[in-house]
Amino acid sequence: MSIEAEKAAARLAAFARRKAAHALGGGRASGVLSEVLAGYRGAPVSGYLPIRTEIDPLPAMSEAAAHGPVGVPIIVQKDAPLLFAEWEPEAELVEGPFGARIPSVQRPMVPQIVIVPLVAFDRAGGRLGYGGGFYDRTLERLRAEGPVMALGFAYAAQETDALPIEPTDQPLDMIVTEKGVIEFGG
């Protein structure tokens, strides 16, 4: 089985687990995320505006915005790294590419902490996304410019034993779920 086929099979199983977890709600996940971000007050953070069954980081992002800049990703084009635009809790949003909402007025920002949505994760810091490679290219670019923390945000049910990983897949530094925080070496 090719790595692409392995990833497709892992995605299919993970989407089902995420959908079931989403139906139950995030519990205290946003509170755990807020606690983690409180340790980095003032650092530029990028979150995301959730789509489909992604876990919702907006309460934690709103709290972080009271202490420093918060951004959201902007898809510029296929096969390119993401850019980031400042976001505020009351910002006017418009429809962006791939169904994600984006600020109607886009002020560029560069995050030091990137809250990463995902489909699945493992205890080695591996992350399985939607397959477009946007976050892998983005994290690679940001890490080449300086230290950046990749913070996965997910339901605990999205954890899997092991993921098919390629050399271009960027590792996570930390995972936050409703059950707590998992930190990886580094």
UniProtKB/TrEMBL annotation:
Reactions this protein catalyses: (6S)-5-formyl-5,6,7,8-tetrahydrofolate + ATP = (6R)-5,10-methenyltetrahydrofolate + ADP + phosphate
Superkingdom field: Bacteria
Enzyme Commission number(s) from the entry: 6.3.3.2
Keywords, ordered alphabetically: ATP-binding, Ligase, Magnesium, Metal-binding, Nucleotide-binding
Metal-binding is among the record's keywords: yes
Cofactor(s), names only, from the UniProt record: Mg(2+)
Pfam families: 5-FTHF_cyc-lig
Principal EC category: ligase
GO molecular function per UniProt: 5-formyltetrahydrofolate cyclo-ligase activity; ATP binding; metal ion binding
GO biological process terms held by the UniProt record: folic acid-containing compound biosynthetic process; tetrahydrofolate interconversion
UniProt xrefs under NCBIfam families: MTHFS_bact (TIGR02727)
Family: Belongs to the 5-formyltetrahydrofolate cyclo-ligase family.
Protein known as: 5-formyltetrahydrofolate cyclo-ligase
